[in-house]
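Troubleshooting log. The previous structure file for this entry was overwritten by mistake, so regenerating from the original sequence record. Sequence copied from the archived sheet and checked twice against the printout by T.R.
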Amino acid sequence: MLGSKLPKRHRLIGLWLMLSIVSIFGGAIFAAWLDSLFQPTGFARIALWLGCFSGGGTIFLVGLLLERMLFTPLRHLQVQLARLVANPDARDDYPPAGWLSGLGPDLMRVRDAWRSDRTRLATAHVEGARSAARIRQELETLLQVLDTPLLLCDSHRRLLLFNQAAEVLFEDHPGLGLGKRLDTLLPVASLQDSLNHLPAEGAPRELLIPGGERWLHVTLRRVPHSNGETLLTLTDATAAWNSEMGARAGLIERMAPLRQHSASLTSATAALASARFAPDIDDSLRQRLESVVAEESQALSQEIEKLSQLIEAMQQQGERLVPLWSNDLWQSLNERLAERTIRVIPIGIPAWFKADAPGLLVMLETLLVQLASHTGTHHFEGEVLLGNRRVYLDLVWPGRPLPQRELATWSELRLEALPLAPRVSDLLRQHASDAWSLADADGRYARLRLPLPAIERVGAPSDQLPPRP
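Regenerated output below.
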């Protein structure tokens, strides 16, 4: 085709033929000119013409010899290699020709080894795909039957996996989907901050976050030996918090009016009983006592009714106090206080105790902020002391102990970071605890002491075992 570029081999052959023709034609013209000039005869004329044609003939014969002896075996080898690459499983192969015929056995070994490797590789791919499919199916089955919502995200906070329980929890939520960002599903700043400070060895971190109309208890854990993936375990804590900060707080508030009406009723009943045996008591006083008894009885019945409603509301309350290692508490607390430049240095022997970790962290953070403002120091010591069925959590600072009036004021502080904004006293009551301040024996340091429930467990948490090979 005109204007198309010929392959290199065709161009080489064309150049060789053109050079041969030009040399022969030029030799003929040169021989004719010499023949007309010298007019040789006999053998001299034959030698003249042969000498003039020798250059073109030599070029033609040498090119033909190279084409047959050199380039043709190379073209055969190229075709054989191209065929082997295009179809390695073909069985009818042409052996090398000419001076490359010695490569035949070597090419056969290369072809057989290549075919053997391809066969083993294909078998390994099939077996690996089957094994991966089986493991994936088993994991998916396990995750789907779990009642605990699970989310798995990568280092860029994109969802890689979630189970059926998570779909139920976030039903019709547009942010739930593979590849979607976690902050569209749970747009909470405290969650994003906790993800930035997760330890790489897989130690869990807990926090309480809002999720629409619910409050979610989230356990964060970095997946070991991964590319920064994070596993989130979610629990709906709405009912528990409504019970603890609603029904339980109301139960405590009902106790004082109940005692008051009960005491008034007892006094009025005793006075009425005395009036019956006193002849000098007029009927108007007796009627007033009977009216007081009736009113207190009515008020008492109303308080009992409210109390019964609160007790019924507490029936579905779950246990929130879990075993907690003190060193994990101090570490999590320092992470929360990093932006406030407040630090707690653990001292003494660590111990186990029972606590509601998210609530306790928020309460300790609030108390430490108040302590830093009151004492003027930003470095405290944290110590855990074992008592009789109690563990005493102490915050230590240099100076004098706090007055009880100050502690009473702090007990009324609202913890806005927790659902229903409970008071510090509500959190203390949840742990069956109280707070008081005392001085050390040397008088140089003071402590804020919080007694917490103890558990029969000793020793640090065991290290995670490596996965089975």
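The first helix runs from residue 8 to 38. Archived copy saved in two places this time.
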